[in-house]
Amino acid sequence: MNPWPFVISAYWVAVCLPAGLLAWAFVSMRRAEAAADDLKRK
Amino acid sequence: MHALANPTRFLRLARPLTIWLLIVGVVMTIGGMAAGLALTPPDYLQGETVRIIYIHVPSAWLGMMGWAGIAAASVSQLVWRHPLAAVAGRAVAPAGATFAAVCLITGSIWGRPTWGTWWEWDGRLTSMLILFFLYLGYIALASAERERGGEGRIAALYGLVGAINLPIIHYSVLWWRTLHQGESIGLTGSTIDNSILWPLPLTMIGFSCLFGAAVLMRMRAELSEAKVEARMRRMGRG
Lengths: 42, 238
Known about the structure:
The complex is a heterodimer.
Chain A: H1 4-41
Chain B: H1 7-38, H2 53-80, H3 85-115, H4 123-147, H5 153-162, H6 165-175, H7 194-197, H8 199-237
């Protein structure tokens, strides 16, 4: 059995899931901070 | 801990720390993964699949440490009523769930060529799967409690009770000698040869920094959302 497809798939999962988490956390932070700043200015 | 009870003081520290954690996390993770894929020799028994440990072990560690963080935040909330404790618990949960999922999926991928099966109801695998479900339950409970305007005490109690699973995961390989191998990396040393082991600290530090950055970003988002909600309430009254 060729092990490389398994190794590459595992690394793909280890990149994609944390990258998705970070992207979601970043977007939600930027949105929330922008909304708070907008309200402060008003 | 108590010095950071003031959200303004916490944010002053969190803003630069988020960026640094992201930079160090990305650099260390990419370096560790590249070294794990290209610079280490294959294992004499596992062959090339040994390279999965560089991502599997840090994910398992962070999945467990995430819940330890939730338990610490729960104690802080229930005993000292730390104003940021519930926010911290809610911020840690998605990151912990993500790394627990990475641990389960990469372990399953490693298991197919090594054990000949994607999944086995072994003590370690099952207790880790339970941890993942505990995270999902915590996320649902904490957000439902927040929507109802609660202080997050039920979620804190759940966080404490769920911590019982941590020693079960840790000692599962000793209590039930089934398929998952015993502890190969401990506080006093490792049974893995240094020529294979050396990229592991890089991914451990890298993943931990990314975990920390995700938690800080979620905490900042929650604090800003709370600020908006409070201001809207005041405007509604005024």
